[in-house]
Amino acid sequence: MPSLSRALLLLPVVSLLAACGNQLDTAEIESAIKADIERQGRRLTLQEVRCPTDVTRQTNGYFRCVGELKPEGTFTINVVQIDSNGTVEWDIPNSQAMLNLVKVENQIQEGLARALSKRAPIDCGSEAYRANQPGDRFECQIVGGIAAGSEQIEKVLVRIDADGNLNWQEVRQSAQLAAASPAQPAPAQAPAVAPAPAEPAAAPQQTSAVPTSTVTGPTGRTVNRPYVRGDAD
């Protein structure tokens, strides 16, 4: 099975000219990021995206922007310049306001791998982002399923508690009945997955290239998962 130990969507890339001199036009970056999050998000409408106004064009230069959702709050957007011509790539860590569903997929996959010593791609749907809303719940499919003794695990149920932390629960059924009967939640609940801090502690370190794994989930979404500079989760 493919190794997805650092799972992320292929990051959006924005290529923009500098506003003047050697400064980035961060107003254009704000607009592009906002539109892309809303396009990839689950019923998301952002109040705004705010980036610094004095960013110098520099290859591998790193800065942070802030997105705002009402009423969930603000969330961090990590931005890395991939050249000196104004081209950037960006990523959103999990936080109390926003969930990066590909990161959630990776956390679930790693948890199942630790518990069962088996690995399978996880698909939480076609959207990349959703608001972190206490009391919300959603399902993620295990692509191909995982056999656990006489049972088959086809999906997990994700719940968000009152503090915005994620708890996920395996949904199991008899392997003999897997194709004929609906699955029921297993009585044991997997450990909570706490969101990453909204503000990363440090700027990312430059890394060498890492192979990209490509899988297609039951929704038909093709997911490329490279490691991305700026991700400290």
Can you tell me about this structure?
With 233 residues, this protein is mainly beta. The protein has a domain of 95 residues. The protein has two helices and 15 strands. The strands form four sheets. Strands 7, 9, 10, 11, 12 and 13 form a six-stranded antiparallel β-sheet that branches. A five-stranded antiparallel β-sheet has the order 1-5-4-3-2, covered by helices on one side. Strands 6-8 form a two-stranded antiparallel ribbon. β10 and β11 form a beta hairpin. The longest helix is centred in the middle third of the chain and has 16 residues. The radius of gyration is 19 Å and the shape is elongated. The protein starts with 12 loop residues before the first strand and ends in an 8-residue tail after the last strand. The N terminus and C terminus are likely disordered.
